[in-house]
Amino acid sequence: MALTRKAVITGIGIVSPIGVGKAAFWESLCARRSGVTISPLLADAEFPVRIGAHVAAFDAKQYIRPRKSLKVMCREIQMAVSAATLASDDAGLAPESVDPDRLGVLFGSEMFYGELEELIVVYRNCREGDQFLFERWGARMTSDLFPLFMLKYLPNMAACHVAIAHDARGPNNTIALGEASSLLALAEAARVIERDHADVMFVGGAGNRLNLTPMLYRGHSNLSRPHGSPETASRPFDRGRNGLVNGEGACVFVLESESHAARRGARIMARVLGGGQSYGPVDGPAARTSAPVRNSIVRALRDAGVNSCDVGHVNAHGLSTVEDDALEAQAIHDCLGETLVTAPKSYFGSLGAGGGAVETAVSVLSFEHGLIPPTLNYDDPDPQCPVRVIHGEPMPLATPQTALLLNQSGTGQAAAVLIAAP
Q1: What is the CATH number of the domain that holds 255?
Q2: CA–CA distance from 186 to each of 85, 102, 305 (Å)?
Q3: Per-residue confidence at 119, pLDDT binned at 50, 70, 90?
Q4: Which domain holds residue 233?
Q5: Three-class SS of residue 319?
Q6: Is 374 a member of any domain?
């Protein structure tokens, strides 16, 4: 069933490797400027893969009050709360313009991991000579770590801090399903408004795939080894792709009912038409297929009450791994034929749970500026990826002015959301 009480986007806040704030972000997209560089953190740690997409020009103290609250926010949470402040300012969301009991928060999130610098003292105190004594870990953790250490890293704390900062007393929830989290949060926030449980929602996501703690755990077998400059490493759907690039970032939208936006004279940037989700196993013989992506697309179109010909462009997950891109491309081709495709991860890689929201901002800003940014590093089309990738130059936005947003997680979830120009 299509949404009946329509949800619209009226503000955007972005903290990304290619810009903080929507103006800087869009300028980088137009200039085809990548955010992927040699990472000083990874290089200093002598990690086998030394490239990544950092948010370089970011100072949370510019956006977060009181400053003492920074002590209980890890970097991901700081980016999320900062993005929410930017989104509120962009939407012109004055405190008197919304009932706090009708203002909610819904975030896409994931595991936030402690920094190695915080854990190193504990580790050293658990060693005796060359031996690590596991039985000491519990006692040393409680005595050597900052007492509120856990509060810095709980996945739901981004949504909590945003609610505190903006006096949002309405629905508050967090979805933690990896790279699919942000789109699932956007679809659910639209449902909250449809159900008349809120008038306005802060919705978005934050993630950091550059933290050394999870990188050491996950390994580096699926990461790109660029043959040239770091900027060429993320190559969605290109024949020469050889792995993903890790990054960090956050994006938050102000989502509100169309009637509420009209009452306060807000500028509408995009409309949420519908969403779909699916799941497929990722382990076992022949487990990986294109079915979850295909099913999420079909369900999103059905939910929005539209046909495949009503999709103007696809904002693809485009992870830049050999298998993932081929499966996603096949699903897009099966469902949408020759619909144009752009892949924002070519600019900043995988931002984890923050990726879907930051990528969504690309299409929302495309509506505003009348241009769809091209995919970077798409030089040699891969026959295994039968999609029409926008590359080289931006593509003028044409009718229909809609975008289908796609994301998938490494654990099998697939999400699709259809949005439209105002």
Answers
A1: 3.40.47.10
A2: 18, 17, 18
A3: confident
A4: 7-114+149-420
A5: coil
A6: yes
Looking at the domain assignment, is residue 121 inside a domain? no
SS3 of residue 94 by DSSP: coil
Q: Is the pTM of this model over 0.85?
A: yes
Per-residue pLDDT of 31-84, as tens digits, reads: 999 999 998 878 777 788 899 999 998 999 999 989 999 999 999 999 999 999
Tell me, what DSSP letter sits at residue 15? E
Residue with tokens 């997409």: 53
Is residue 126 assigned to a domain?
A: no
Number of domains in the chain: 1
Q: Dihedrals φ, ψ of 256, to 5°? A: -145, 165
Q: Which two tokens stand for residue 63?
A: 């956006």
What is the rounded distance in angstroms from the CA atom of residue 26 to the CA atom of residue 366?
9
Nearest to 344 by CA among 46, 26, 9: 26
Percent of the chain topping pLDDT 90: 83
Rounded Cα distance, 252 and 235, in Å = 26
Q: Is 254:190 a contact under the CB 8 Å cutoff?
A: no
